[in-house]
Design a protein that fits this description.
The complex is a heterodimer of chains A (176) and B (391). Chain A has 176 residues and is an alpha+beta fold. Chain A contains five helices and five strands. Chain A has a five-stranded mixed β-sheet with strand order 1-2-5-4-3, with helices on one face. Chain A is elongated and about 75 Å long. Chain B starts with 27 loop residues before the first strand and ends with a helix. In chain B, helix 4 runs antiparallel to helix 12 (375-381). Chain B has 391 residues and is α+β, with helices and mostly antiparallel strands. Chain B has a single domain, classed as Orthogonal Bundle (Cytochrome-c3 Hydrogenase, chain B). In chain B, a hairpin with a 2-residue loop joins strand 2 and strand 3. The longest helix of chain B is centred in the N-terminal third of the chain and has 28 residues, at 114-141. Chain B contains 13 helices and eight strands. The chains are: A alpha+beta (176), B alpha+beta (391). The interface between A and B is large, with 37 and 37 residues.
């Protein structure tokens, strides 16, 4: 994996390297440099299996992290490419022409994180959600509890108690 | 003179390569297979456009089972996530437990005891058998052989008994947790497991005769649902679907984990890449799991701890990092991508199930030009579980 990294370094501008395991590295790359790099890895370095494509929301830093995990099944090595996107304008180039299956991942990321991949097939078709018109639900600033409260009514007759106060009253009634 | 089918009534590709389907022409019919349909695997549906009895377009629809596990886990401590991960895949839940636990252990720097590694492998193989048994029943059922499902359900029930005595639960075992496993094997377990395995082998011999040597089953599956081996990387194909193409791809061998390096086995491969080949690969893989369980029980240590010491799990913080852990489940590569940020909660958990690629992009491609009566068999032959698509 070290040799691969050195070879790539001579060809591409690479960012931070994380060596998670002997056969699993993560490299940060600039948004505009992903496509030539990922094409090179697929066509020249044998990392032909797109394991997954997903996003991480770093809300505090105002960024989304896209992770493209590639695998070379013959030499048993994995390489994760991290691309940081501006959270205010999350747009990324589509790779569905390199891996047709990437279109599914991109469709999900569009729906769940609101990340746009212009040109990706069926991007605006609903994938998992139906009629969703608020903050994309996998963003960190989407509050599931608040959403549930605004969408659904409380069950009639339901009482909510603070567990600590309730248990103290049950166990030590004399202390009240 | 060779028969030349008349294709003039079928849609022709337009300038962009897509089929020109005019739904108002009266030649096409929209048909939904699922979500409630005997020819669908679980809670998903396929929106078919048919021309005569031939499918010209198919779109997979999921979302009927979305519970937002990945989001829920961001609000739970690491130990609170453990009981919910198994629910991501109902018929084979143990892979979620293993992948999650192994990812947490790697990022937290925990080494699990030797006996726990063997018990984890045993559980994963038992889960694989259960999953394959459900598959065999489903595959035969999709072609009208209902009795196979009844036989395989019977032996699956025996295996669930073994799970119950070992873990206390039949479906969601919640046995593999970060740090190890919950308990050792119960007394007399080996003997009862051997009886179950013998019953399983006996039933499978019947299944072999009645299903795999059945003329109707062969006629309906050989040469049907062919997956071109050149699609393997484009569509992220793994597991028995890849092995039925002739590629010996098996994470247990390619990227060994737990005690697989100490077990003697070779990946089962086929060559024809059709529905029959995939079913046969799974049947032989099932028998290999039986052998692996015997090897595990013969070789595993019976003393020593099964849990590594953990910090106070209520205040357990894991340093910032990210990792990916994979395993070979009955459907292919199953993996967990875990990102931590130094807090007591996961920053992000992403579940990579093999159905995600098989049931979406691959199925939508394979289903075109498929006869409508073969759709169910094709779908089942990809062995898809919708919960792992929508998590």
């Amino acid at each position: 994996m070290r040799e691969l990294y050195q070879r790539l370094q001579s060809l591409f501008v690479l960012g931070e390297l994380t060596e998670q395991r002997a056969n699993l590295f993560f490299i940060t790359v600039e948004k505009d440099r992903l496509r030539p790099l990922i094409t090179h890895l697929r066509d020249r370095e044998g990392l032909r299996h797109l394991v997954l494509l997903t996003a991480v929301d770093w809300l505090e830093e105002g960024q989304f992290q896209l992770t493209y995990l590639l695998c070379d099944r013959l030499t048993r090595r994995d390489l994760g490419l991290r691309v940081m996107l501006d959270r205010a304008n999350p747009v990324m180039e589509s790779i569905h022409d390199l891996w047709p299956t990437a279109a599914t991942y991109q469709r999900e990321l569009r729906e769940m994180f609101g990340i746009d991949f212009p040109g990706s097939p069926r991007l605006d078709e609903e994938f998992i959600l139906e009629g969703w018109n608020t903050t994309p639900p996998y963003r960190r600033d989407f509050d599931t509890l608040e959403y549930a409260r605004s969408q659904y009514a409380e069950r009639a007759g339901r009482e909510t108690r603070d567990p600590e106060t309730h248990m103290r009253a049950q166990l030590y009634p004399e202390s009240n | 003179m060779a028969y030349q089918p008349d294709r003039s009534q079928y849609p022709q590709p337009g300038p962009d390569g897509k089929l020109d389907i005019d739904l108002t022409s009266g030649k096409y019919l929209k048909l939904w297979q699922g979500p409630n349909h005997p020819g669908i695997t679980g809670n998903m549906s396929v929106e078919l456009t048919v021309c005569g009895d031939e499918v010209v377009e198919g779109k997979t629809h999921v979302g009927y089972l979305h519970r937002g596990f990945e989001k829920l886990m961001e609000r739970r401590t690491f130990i609170q996530c453990f009981p919910i991960v198994c629910r991501i895949c109902v018929p084979e839940p143990d892979f979620n437990e293993y992948c999650y636990a192994a990812a947490v252990e790697e990022l937290a720097g925990i080494e699990i005891p030797e006996q726990a590694r063997w018990i984890r492998t045993l559980i994963l193989e038992m889960g694989r058998i259960n999953s394959y048994l459900m598959y065999l029943g489903g595959q035969a059922g999709a072609l009208g052989q209902g009795v196979i499902g009844q036989w395989t359900t019977y032996v699956r029930d025996l295996m669930l008994d073994r799970f119950e005595e070992m873990t206390g639960a039949r479906i969601y075992h919640m046995f593999i947790l970060p740090g190890g496993v919950r308990d050792t094997l119960p007394e007399g377990f080996d003997g009862r497991m051997e009886e179950t395995l013998q019953e399983l082998e006996s039933t499978l011999a019947d299944v072999d005769k009645v299903m795999f040597h059945n003329a109707v089953f062969k006629k309906r599956t050989i040469g049907v649902g062919y997956v071109d081996p050149s699609l393997i990387d484009q569509y992220g194909i793994t597991g028995p679907v890849a092995r039925a193409m002739g590629f010996p791809r098996d994470v247990r061998k390619d990227d060994p984990y737990l005690v697989y390096p100490e077990l003697d086995f070779e990946p089962v491969v086929g060559k024809d890449s059709d529905i029959y080949a995939r079913a046969d690969v799974r049947r032989r893989d099932l028998l290999m799991s039986v052998d692996l369980i015997r090897q595990i029980l013969a070789k595993m240590p019976r003393t020593g701890p099964v849990m590594a010491p953990l910090p106070n799990v209520l205040h357990w913080k894991i340093p910032r990092g990210e990792t990916y852990i994979r395993g070979e489940c009955s459907r292919g590569e199953y993996g967990f991508y875990l990102v931590t940020d130094g807090s007591g909660y996961p920053r992000r958990v992403n579940v990579r199930g093999p159905s995600y690629t098989h049931a979406m992009a691959l199925l939508e491609r394979l289903i075109v030009n498929c006869n409508i009566s073969d759709v169910a068999a094709l779908l089942v032959s990809l062995h898809t579980y919708p919960p792992e698509i929508e998590r």
